[in-house]
Design brief:
By secondary structure, the chain is mainly alpha-helical. The chain has 24 helices and five strands. The relative contact order is 0.08.
Length: 622
């Protein structure tokens, strides 16, 4: 058998039923794919070791929460206060004095707000009997309204009778047992000393934790540079990479906390003013509570809305105060979520919504309500660590909002799974956002590169058939959705060099050329033989584009070009080597093949075809 009828690198004869589906380029990757971590086969630690390490870390976080929670709060507060300390240092204030001033001012603001909130809560407590009377009256009126005859009165009466009959049928026939005697245990009144001990047991741990947080904040702000150097020393490895990771984590967390604080303030202040105007008691308390609870993802605003609505229901004998309070909360939510947050944040933290919810659940299970407040900042730090620490790369995949797979890999996976409808949907969405030409150049050809590189290694015959048939369906749908201009004279022929993947690339190239006003058609791949070449109709063709995914296409292309030129000497040939690598042995395949030009992308093909068609037109007119 002739050498030109053998499959390269395999020595197997070509099938009599037609060429192979994708091609024999097993294990070959383009330079872009070689750098992609998706194709790296880095050694992985055994699964059991990873699970044991994860269990130890989770146990340490759970049992060490009494120390770790105050430390985490101190670190986050220092992220917010450090820009203020840095700003004061610009006025030649020593760092120690600046830290003391900032921490004292923050404590003073917290104490003043807490005192005002406590005063309003005590006033609300004194008015609780009045509120109880109003609530009781409203519930009685509501119950009386329900008892009035209405549309469903007859239905409820029928259901009541049926329920009585069922209860009577299920009741025992023997004598009714005597009702049990209710016993009430009356405890002795608590002594004053017992109350003091109870208060101490309740508030001392909280006060102690707050004191620890204050001390940590002061020390972190005072020795920020030294702590950063020690952390970099612990990270080791590449100092530049460690510095970039630490800077990005600090910047992201600081920006998130600062912007969140501003957003919450712009929500809590109007809430306080609005509740004051409406007349809801404790407006300052509910405004501060709403601002604080907005640090809790998703559930915080809902919890904060319950308190003012409940108090408005208890204060006003009617429903006007409740409706005005509800309108205020809805208005603030709409303005904050749709105007203020997008304007201030600019870009998100980079965490997906599902990951944010799961992280909130995880840290709440470990550290309780404090973990819920800390979940988002901690997740941001873990995301940055996953981006720069190779051993933690899985965290970026799990937590990040960016797609885990690029567009060519996503399309390839859908084709491998036989999900042609979703593959077509992906292609149409990408083409609609950019253009069908851009889809072919950035996604279509790269998908075929992935398919040809997996030939003979990871792909099975069923996978190869799914990729070929699915990609053919994708191209067909795009051709129907984006038809070229009618009545274009066919001047360019795109021929698939050898494999079916080459033919699919030729169809993409032909559609791309036609969308740019160059009449073109695709010719399927075939065995290089006189019979096959004789069946080609290239009489009116001016340019032929030979498409190959083989990294060494000159072996096959030179015979094809030579035989085609014998029959149609006026045709100019362009070799489209989609997987051509300049550092191969045949760095200039145009010399050995006889082709006039070499292109490696659709953009190069468009530019070359335009120049050649113009030259041919000028020569004909001259």
């Amino acid at each position: 058998m002739a050498a030109d009828t053998l499959e390269p690198k395999t020595g197997r004869p070509a099938s009599s039923n037609g060429p192979s589906l994708l091609g024999p380029e097993s294990g070959l990757h383009s330079p872009e794919e070689a750098e992609d971590p998706l194709y790296e086969s880095a050694p992985r630690a055994p699964l059991m070791n990873s699970l044991v390490s994860l269990a130890i870390i989770v146990a340490a976080l759970y049992f060490g929460r009494d120390l770790l929670v105050p430390l985490a709060f101190a670190i986050l507060i220092s992220f917010v206060l450090d820009p203020v300390v840095t700003w004061l240092k610009r006025f030649r204030i020593p760092r120690g004095a600046a830290v003391t001033l900032v921490v004292t001012a923050a404590l003073g603001l917290i104490v003043a707000t807490g005192f005002l909130a406590f005063t309003q809560l005590r006033q609300i407590g004194n008015n609780l009997p009045t509120y109880e009377t109003t609530i009781t009256k409203k519930l009685r009126d509501f119950r009386r309204d329900l008892r009035k005859p209405g549309l469903l009165d007859q239905y409820s009466r029928v259901f009541g009778k049926v329920q009585k009959e069922i209860n009577a049928a299920q009741a025992p026939l023997g004598p009714r047992a005597a009702a049990p005697t209710q016993v009430e245990v009356v405890r002795d009144a608590a002594k004053p000393m017992d109350r003091v001990v109870s208060w101490v047991e309740t508030f001392v741990p909280t006060i102690a934790a707050a004191g620890i947080v204050i001390v940590f904040v002061f020390l972190i702000l005072l020795d920020r540079g030294d702590l950063r150097d020690r952390f970099l020393r612990l990270m080791g490895g590449n100092l530049g990479q460690a510095t970039t990771a630490l800077s990005e984590a600090s910047e992201r967390v600081s920006k998130y906390l600062t912007m969140q604080l501003i957003v919450n303030a712009t929500y809590g202040l109007p809430m306080t003013i609005g509740l004051l105007l409406i007349g809801v008691p404790g407006a300052l308390v509910w405004g501060v509570l709403a601002a604080l609870l907005r640090f809790v993802p998703y559930a915080g605003p809902l919890i904060a809305a319950v308190f003012p609505l409940t108090l408005a229901f208890a204060v006003d004998p009617g429903w006007n105060m409740v409706l005005w309070t509800l309108a205020l909360i809805l208005t603030l939510e709409l303005v904050s979520n749709n105007i203020i947050e997008p304007w201030l944040y600019g870009s998100s933290t980079g965490i997906s919504t599902l990951s944010l919810i799961l992280a909130a659940m995880f840290w709440t299970a470990l550290w309780g309500p404090m973990g819920l407040l800390l979940s988002t900042p901690i997740t941001v730090v873990l995301l940055v660590a996953g981006r720069y620490v190779p051993a933690l790369h899985f965290l970026e995949v799990l937590l990040g909002s960016e797609r885990a797979l690029d567009e060519p890999t996503r399309l390839h996976q859908r084709l491998l799974a036989g999900d042609v409808d979703e593959a077509v949907e992906l292609a149409e969405d990408y083409a609609e956002k950019t253009s069908p030409e851009n889809f072919y150049a950035k996604v279509g050809l790269n998908t075929l590169r992935l398919a040809t590189s997996a030939y003979g290694t990871a792909a099975t015959a069923q996978h190869r058939h799914r990729v070929v048939s699915g990609m053919g369906r994708v191209i067909e749908e795009l051709r129907e959705q984006y038809p070229p201009k009618p009545d274009l004279p066919t001047r360019i022929a795109c021929i698939g060099g050898r494999w079916t993947a080459d033919t699919l690339a030729a169809e993409m190239a032909a559609h791309t050329l036609a969308l740019h006003g160059f009449g073109s058609r695709a010719v399927p791949a075939g065995i290089i033989s006189a019979e096959h070449i004789g069946q080609l109709d290239l009489q009116d063709i001016e340019v032929v584009c030979l498409c190959y995914f083989s990294p060494a296409p000159a072996i096959h292309a030179r015979f094809f070009v030579r035989r085609l030129k014998r029959q149609w000497p006026h045709i100019q040939f362009v070799l489209a080597a989609w997987n051509h690598a300049p550092d191969t042995q045949d760095a200039t395949p145009t010399r050995t093949t006889g082709a006039e030009a070499l292109v490696t992308s659709l953009d190069e093909l468009l530019a070359d075809a335009e120049s050649r068609i113009e030259r041919v037109s000028l020569s004909h007119s001259g």
